[in-house]
Amino acid sequence: HVQLVESGGGSVQPGGSLILSCRVSGFTAGGRCMGWLRQAPGKAREGVATIDSDGTTGYADSVKGRFTISLDKAESTVYLQMNSLNAEDAAIYYCAADLVSGGDWRSVDLWSYWGRGTQVTVS
């Protein structure tokens, strides 16, 4: 039974930082492609960052240089370090796992497992 549980969301001032965590159970994080996606009010869910089983990472253009995705295999946890946050980053952030092989990680429909999300507010 696969479970993804996010934590670390909250409210932060513009320019601030947050670290999101996604605890994975049912398989070991790092054995499958993992990602963070977000959805702001009135907007479609969008890909933020991804880390593949070989450690390859990818980022949306809007977060490059500010966000970092990482993985702790021993803790089976995926992290998203978010720096220099601005109002456009406010959203519910979702952890996702097990991307369809060869699929575009930005495609919401190609992820097999999802967490319930954690709210990030920037104000």
Specify the number of helices: 0
Number of strands: 11
Average pLDDT works out at: 94
Low-confidence stretches: none
Shape descriptor? globular
Question: Could you give the order of the helices and strands?
Answer: EEEEEEEEEEE
Structural class of the secondary structure composition? Answer: mainly beta
Approximate helicity band: under 10%
- Through-space gap between termini: 37 Å
Strand content: over 45%
Largest sheet: 7 strands, mixed
Rg (C-alpha, Å): 13 Å
Protein model, in words:
The protein is mainly beta and 123 residues long. The protein contains no helices and eleven strands. It has strands at 3-7, 10-12, 18-25, 34-39, 46-51, 57-59, 67-72, 77-82, 91-99, 111-114, 118-122. Strands 2, 4, 5, 6, 9, 10 and 11 form a seven-stranded mixed β-sheet that branches. It has a four-stranded antiparallel β-sheet with strand order 1-3-8-7, with no helix packed on it. A hairpin with a 4-residue loop joins strand 7 (67-72) and strand 8 (77-82). It is globular.
In a few lines, what is going on in this structure?
The protein has 123 residues and is mainly β. The protein is built from no helices and 11 strands. The termini are far apart.
Walk me through the topology.
Blueprint: E1 3-7, E2 10-12, E3 18-25, E4 34-39, E5 46-51, E6 57-59, E7 67-72, E8 77-82, E9 91-99, E10 111-114, E11 118-122
Parallel strand pairs: 2-11
Antiparallel strand pairs: 1-3, 3-8, 4-5, 4-9, 5-6, 7-8, 9-10, 9-11
